[in-house]
Amino acid sequence: MEGDPTLQLRIFDLNCWAIRYLSKRRQERVRLIGDTLRREEFDLVLLQEVWSEQDYSDLKVKLGRCYPFSHYFRSGVIGSGLCVFSRFPILDTLLYQYSLNGYPYMLQHGDWFCGKSVGLVIIKISGIIFNVYVTHLHAEYCREKDAYLPHRLVQAWELAQFIRHTSKAADVVLLGGDLNMHPEDVGIRLLRGWTGLRDAFAEATRFEGCEDGCTLVPNNCFTVKTELLPFPLGIRIDYILYKAISSFTVKCEELKTTTGTAPGKDIPFSDHEAVMATLLIQRQGQAAGATHSTAELTLVDVVTEARLEVGVGLRAARRQRYSTGRMAVLALLLLLLQALAVLGALVGLDAGQPFPKLSFSLLAFLAIGILLLATGLHLFHTMEVKMLQGTEEQMRMVLQALRERP
């Protein structure tokens, strides 16, 4: 690559679905992923859902000769699951954890405990500075009634802002990850519109893989078939996005996805298909300027739509805050009534009847438990309200600035 006026970069992106004790045949699949990466020798490898640090360590040992540089991003209770392997030196890293990421009491989903984040690694190849971002947004568990849509939109907005504010010194920006959004969803349109990132699938000169570039497909033995019934071909939620910042151009020469089981094996790498892109980076005179008139008019509509959805989430969060606050007050009143009853018994107001100590103790423990739970939920939903308010205010300011531009 060195000295070549056109730099070719091969990228591998995969949601590994490597959850200790929960993911099917996890260790076997992790070894299979490592063997494939060592054989193919990509330039950059972006992985999500590597929840076990032992799996990361095993991959690091296996891939050490091919990918001497790597980084694992730690956050949340069980970790972000994000890691990067590179053939080129990593100059710097940075992690940003999203302010909203689901609910701690939704244990069956578990996103809150992961500390969903975006990780940044900065690398330099042939004098070109690359800002490489890897992320995993909150999952969509029910498309018809998506309670997490406002949180995912906040994450998409924070991801876009993070990229905008950290990529000013870069020559090329790359983003890979499981965005848990369909290509036409408002979150994807917001992210791409606000950052100017281009979709490798849409821009690829050649494509090979699952139809429509889908990365969650029904014929994968690990997918939940019932969740994909409305989408017989599957859905595309894993992406490689890119753009040139300075006097460079980036072109996607080829994009591939895996298509089921790995070669010679009876299982795929993951419940997601891997995405592999070959990008061509070339130096030019000046970076092409954006067509503000058309792009900004479209962006106004997208930000307006996103702001409305965030507003829906804000109203729901306020209702939750009110309900949990009222529950805490009722539990506190119950404790006060019990305290008065105990005080009355102590001064002899009910001397003719025995005092039911066991019943009062059980009721007191129940009231204390409800009070603690309701207070914790009230504080959580108060923070949720503040985060949604902050995002809505940012979007309002952006809309005002866009509309005032000549």
UniProtKB/TrEMBL annotation:
Output the Pfam families linked to this UniProt entry: Exo_endo_phos
Q: Where does the record say this protein resides? A: Membrane
Q: Which residues form the Endonuclease/exonuclease/phosphatase domain?
A: 15-272
Which Gene3D superfamilies does the UniProt entry name for this protein? Endonuclease/exonuclease/phosphatase
EC number(s) per entry = 3.1.4.12
Record has Transmembrane as a keyword: yes
Entry annotated with the keyword Metal-binding = yes
In terms of superkingdom, the source organism counts as Eukaryota
> Which catalysed reactions does the entry list for this protein?
an N-(acyl)-sphingosylphosphocholine + H2O = an N-acyl-sphingoid base + phosphocholine + H(+); a sphingosylphosphocholine + H2O = a sphingoid base + phosphocholine + H(+); 1-O-hexadecyl-sn-glycero-3-phosphocholine + H2O = 1-O-hexadecyl-sn-glycerol + phosphocholine + H(+); 1-hexadecanoyl-sn-glycero-3-phosphocholine + H2O = 1-hexadecanoyl-sn-glycerol + phosphocholine + H(+)
Which family is it part of? Belongs to the neutral sphingomyelinase family.
Q: Give the protein name, as stated in the record.
A: Sphingomyelin phosphodiesterase 2
Which species does this protein come from? Chordeiles acutipennis
Lineage summary: Eukaryota, Metazoa, Chordata, Craniata, Vertebrata
- This protein's encoding gene: Smpd2
